[in-house]
Structures are given as structure tokens and as C-alpha cells.
Specification:
Elements lengths: L1 H8 L5 E3 L13 H11 L5 H16 L3 E5 L2 H14 L3 H6 L9 E5 L8 H5 L3 E5 L15 H7 L4 E7 L8 H10 L4 E4 L9 H7 L4 E5 L11 E5 L1 H9 L39 H16 L2 H18 L5 E4 L5 E5 L3 H13 L4 E3 L8 E4 L8 H12 L7
Parallel strand pairs: 1-11, 3-4, 3-5, 5-6, 6-7
Antiparallel strand pairs: 2-8, 7-8, 9-10, 10-12
Helix pairs in contact: 2-11, 3-11, 4-10, 7-8, 12-14
Bound molecules: pyridoxal-5'-phosphate.
Length: 396
Amino acid sequence: MNESLYGRLGVPVIVNAKGAATRLSGGVLHPEVTAAMAEASAACVDMIDLHAVAAAEIAAATGAENGLATSGAAASLLLAAAACMAGLDLAAMARLPDARGLKREIVAIRSQRNDYDHALRGAGARLVEVGLPDRFAGAGIRDAEPWELEAAIGPNTAAVLWVASARARPPLEEVVAVAHRHDVPVIVDAAAELPPAAKLRTFIAAGADLVAFSGGKGLGGPQASGILCGRRDLVMSAALQMLDLDLRWGDFDPPPSFIDKALLPGLPRNGVGRPCKADKGAIAGLLTALRRFLAESDEARTARWQAPLDHIREELPDLPFTPVRGGIPRLALQLADFEAADRLYRALLAHRPVIHLDHSEMEAGRLYIAPNCLAEGDAERIVEALRILWPREARR
Ligand SMILES: *Cc1c(COP(=O)(O)O)cnc(C)c1O
């Protein structure tokens, strides 16, 4: 079905063993998720009603006070920055991304800087970097210190950013303690932290004020979907800066748990987050994926992902695979060096169908096979390609 659609369009179908990368179109959705998207697309609703239901489901799943369905984790970050800068000040919302005169600084830990923080700057925020990850020189063991965060917080600080990772220093609890001492909210970028399912709640439980998750990664939702969850007033501000509000004040009647009209002097204009709008089909797909994600245990999910990896190992017993455990299991393929890994990587790109592996550690001569975006039959396609292309001298 997909093959024939893409065939008609003249777009080659690839084997995605890299994982849910945006450039490779995210993952392959469960039929229940695509059915929800199609069903949602066949009728019209008031988007505030759909968003309010999504808010309640996201809040229940994360333990947060409020939630918002967005078009991706990057969108969630832009909205988070806008919320922290404007709060419920409608004039400030109208002015963004011109943030002059507002608290506009977001303190970011230098070692955690990445391309996604463009999203924060897109709302008008200015990043203030702290910390010196001195491990690079070999001797160092330090990264950013709580006192450095403290020193960077001032009258113009809108928020502190923490990018979730096992490597992130200082730990979130210490960042929250410093930020909250100064009444500054903490934004957590947890885009790629799921599974395990427990992480839906971890960051809120640790005191984060806003948390961004990707819907299209481990959650199994549409590629352009995401979650923002956290403090009621901040999520409310984010929602007000994203929603289409071409309404009369008297006709605006959202449930107070999502948007509390009593806290507003009037309706804001369509805001800086308008390009982050979530499609009704994407929201339906996201909520369906979220329910499926919560209904399946981490063990069952891992076993489901492990099956194609086991198949590949069994079919190719003389290849030096190493299983890697973690949120999403993978197979590591160790080659002699970078050149050997690069040759195999490029041979798989020249193969038909094109096979994309995870090449994030190619410098070390290592490639990975990720199972979570494989379609039916892809494990066999990988086996067939590696049988031909794996260098003879690199076999066991
Ligand atoms: C993937 C990712 C994002 C962006 O997520 P989208 O849902 O694609 O917008 C942001 N931050 C980090 C750390 C990511 O890994």
C-alpha cells in the first residue's frame, strides 16, 4: 500500500534502521494510530475541545498540571520559551518574538547546547551559556556547576534549560533547586527520552516546570507531533500563543482546567507559536499512540523491538554484532576503523532498497541497527544486503 503510493509519487521507499530521524520521515505508525488519524480527518471539531481533551490525557500520563499537543518537541520548546517570557501578559504575547523589555534570557548549560535550541531563540529568547565541559582536555571531570547557574540568573532570566540525558550535569534536581530559589522556571528538553514509560513522569516529579517530548520518536506517534506538559499557567500561556483565536471574547469558552478565562483580561492575538499548530489528525494519532505506549509494558515493547534484531543475528552468525540494551535496543556492528565503517555505510546507501544505519559513532568504526522504524520485511532486507556487502575480512 505504502510502496504503491510512494511508487506512484516516484519516491523510493527506504529501510530505516537509523531510528526516528526527521530526515528519514520518522517511524512506521501502528495501524491503530493511522486509523485514528484518518477518522479524525473525516470530521470537523472545535479545536479547543480537542485540545482540552488532549490536555487532560497528557496531564494524566505525565503527572503534570496541564498539557498541550504540539507539532513536535521543537515546537514545544518554542512555545515553552514564549510562555516563560510572556506569562499571561497579552501585550507581551503580541510583541514576541520582539522580546525587548521582557525577561528574555534562558540560561543554558554549554555542554548541552544543540541545534534544537534554535526553537527557543525563535520565540525571541536569548541564550546565556554557563559551564565549561573540561573533559575535552583529558584532565577535567567537571561540566557546569550549580553556582555557575546561580551566578547567571538575574532580573532578565526567563527560564533555565536542561536537556535530558544520562550525561547531563548538574542533575535536574540541583538545577531545579537553584532556579526555584530565584522563582525561575525550568524547561526540560526530553524529546528523545521515551521509553522507558516512567520517564513521562520523571522530570515533572523532579520539579521541572515545562517538559517537551517528541511524539514521533519512542512514543510511536505521528512524525510531526509533540507534547508540552507542566505548570498550569505556563502551558496555558503556550496554548494561547499557538491556538487560532479569531473569536469574540464572549464566545471563547474553554474548560478552565486547560485555559482559565478568569485569569485573562481579554483574548490575545494569534501569537508567535501559531506555526506550531497541531493538526487534528496528528492530535488523534498522538493520543492513540500515547494510550498504546502506556498500555504496553517496557518489557513487551523491548521484546517486540528485539525480535527483528534477533532475526538478523541468527541469519548472520559470522558477523560481529553486539547487542546494546537501553531505552530502544540496538545492534552494534564493529568494523576495523572509520574507513571500513564508512565504506559499508555508503555501500548500503547505494544498495536497493537504500538502507540507512545509525552512523552516530562511525568515528569509532561502529554502526548501529535500530529496530523501531523497521517495516514488515525490513529485517530480511537488511540480512540480504549485509550478506553481500559485509566485508569478507571483517567476518568472525
Ligand atoms: C528530536 C529532538 C528534538 C526535536 O523533536 P521533534 O519532535 O522532531 O521536533 C528536540 N530535542 C532533542 C534533544 C531531540 O533529540
